[in-house]
């Protein structure tokens, strides 16, 4: 099992993410809960996490949920995309189990997201 300090490393020098994008991610995570996919968090990564998006950037988002631990249905993945399209078409969700997030030390994408990502909690909205 990974130590907490290994799960999320400090991000390299970058600009803070756009608050409006963080609000979109929070709304998306709450919308997922409304569809039966409770999330522990989302982890924003890529150009929006680094603060360097361009007009064509999508919102790269790792969706951490116990729903995705072990075998999960194609319908659960379809739901991620359907809710994403209804919330903001820029969202590109990637499912990740809660155990996978804390225990997997072999998946390159997870290593990058842990190092460069920004954790977003569904109820961590200062405006709500």
Could you give a short description of this structure?
This protein is α+β, with helices and mostly antiparallel strands and 128 residues long. It has six helices and four strands, in the order ααβαβαβααβ. A four-stranded mixed β-sheet has the order 3-2-1-4, with helices on both faces.
Question: How does this model look, in words?
Answer:
With 128 residues, this protein is of the alpha+beta class. The chain has one domain: 2-Layer Sandwich (Beta Polymerase, domain 2). Strands 3-2-1-4 form a four-stranded mixed β-sheet, sandwiched between helices. The longest helix has 16 residues.
Q: How would the blueprint of this fold be written?
A:
Elements: H1 4-7, H2 19-34, E1 41-45, H3 47-50, E2 59-65, H4 74-87, E3 91-97, H5 98-103, H6 108-116, E4 118-120
Parallel strand pairs: 2-3
Antiparallel strand pairs: 1-2, 1-4
Helix pairs in contact: 2-4
Assigned CATH class: Alpha Beta
Shape: globular
CATH architecture annotation: 2-Layer Sandwich
Please mark out the parts with pLDDT under 50 across 5 or more consecutive residues, or reply none: 3-7
Stated plainly, the CATH topology is called Beta Polymerase, domain 2
Number of strands: 4
Tally of discrete structural domains: 1
- Count of helical regions: 6
Structural class: alpha+beta
Radius of gyration: 14 Å
């Amino acid at each position: 099992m990974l130590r907490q300090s290994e799960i999320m490393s400090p991000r390299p020098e970058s600009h803070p993410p756009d608050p409006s994008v963080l609000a979109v991610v929070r709304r998306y995570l709450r919308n997922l809960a409304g569809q039966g996919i409770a999330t522990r968090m989302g982890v924003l990564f890529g150009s929006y996490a680094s603060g360097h998006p361009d007009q064509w950037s999508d919102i790269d988002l790792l969706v951490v949920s116990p729903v995705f631990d072990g075998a999960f249905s194609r319908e659960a993945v379809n739901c991620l995309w359907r809710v994403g399209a209804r919330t903001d078409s820029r969202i590109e969700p990637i499912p990740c189990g809660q155990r996978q997030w804390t225990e997997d030390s072999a998946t390159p994408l997870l290593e990058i997201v842990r190092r460069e990502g920004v954790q977003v909690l569904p109820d961590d909205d200062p405006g709500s």
